[in-house]
Amino acid sequence: MQNQISPLILSFGASDPVAATGLFADLASFAAMGCHGLPIITAVLTGDTAQIDSIHPIDADLVDEQARTILEDMTVVTFKVGQVGSVDNATTIAEIVSDYPEMPLILDPFNTTITEQIADAEDLTLSIRELLIPQATLLLISAVELSRLAETWKENTEAEDLTADVMTLIDSGCEFVLVTGTPSANGEIANTLFNESGIVRRDIWPRIPGSFAGAGSTLSAAIAALMANGLEVPEAVLEAQEYTQAAISHSQQFGMGKFIPDRYFWAKENE
């Protein structure tokens, strides 16, 4: 029997039957990095490898009960928040994490495909911006999603300015913002990490051909796991990108749709 327990991460997110995104992506990535995930279901998805057909939010009282019961029993070291499912859930999760202000919070709540299925998507986006982002240690957001989020505070006549948009979020209280898919030359992928001082690091990766589901979930989960293991944000972001690139390069096509990153690629390398 081991006395040294694995780092515990409480993760809020959706149940995806394909296990490409959401909680199942989190659990696999956490386990691959020696952490134990505690899944709090916020919504149930229906769909396949080609598309997500619908999202069914879980009642906020049940989300609250799931999380607080676990937090009273176990010593959690990191929060990870993915798809929250509803405005009520965003409010509930914000109240829960506010009771643990010293605990790192990795926030990855935006998924365009899922958001399109939510009736009150605009209200949900606004609630995430006002309630969760100010509490986040790190927000993961794509350049496209950032542009859409910025529409909640900018006038239609204002020009797009990625850095200014990021600084608006940081000024609200978020410590770090990792923007994926920032502009780069030669068709490569650039991910840029910001804090209150500006750019912390900018990493460029070769674009891997194909259509993938779950890459963003893998990246944010890996960051959460590495921070739970004691890494500082800049180091965790770099190592998580390396892990995610490898997982994507080993992706598998289980159905007729998108490829799914293999979070356990390392276990097969010596076979």
What would you say about this model in short?
The protein is of the alpha/beta class.
- Unreliably modeled segments: none
The structure class reads alpha/beta
The helix content is 25-40%
Any idea what the CATH architecture of the domain at 8-139 and 213-264 is? 3-Layer(aba) Sandwich
- Beta-strand segment tally: 9
Topology pattern, helix = H, strand = E: EHEEHEHEHHEHHEEEHH
The CATH homologous superfamily of the domain at 8-139 and 213-264 corresponds to Ribokinase
Strand content: 15-25%
List the helices and strands and how they pair.
Blueprint (H helix, E strand, L loop, with lengths): L7 E8 L6 H11 L3 E12 L4 E6 L2 H14 L4 E4 L5 H12 L6 E3 L4 H4 L5 H12 L5 E5 H8 L11 H10 L4 E7 L6 E7 L2 E8 L9 H14 L4 H17 L22
Parallel strand pairs: 1-2, 1-4, 4-5, 5-6, 6-7
Antiparallel strand pairs: 2-3, 7-8, 8-9
Helix pairs in contact: 1-8, 2-3, 3-5, 8-9
EC number: 2.7.1.49
Keywords: Kinase, Transferase
Pfam families: Phos_pyr_kin
Structure explained in plain terms:
Helices cover 38% and strands 22% of the residues. The chain has helices spanning 22-32, 60-73, 87-98, 112-115, 121-132, 143-150, 162-171, 215-228, 233-249, and strands at residues 8-15, 36-47, 52-57, 78-81, 105-107, 138-142, 176-182, 189-195, 198-205. It is globular, with a radius of gyration of 18 Å.
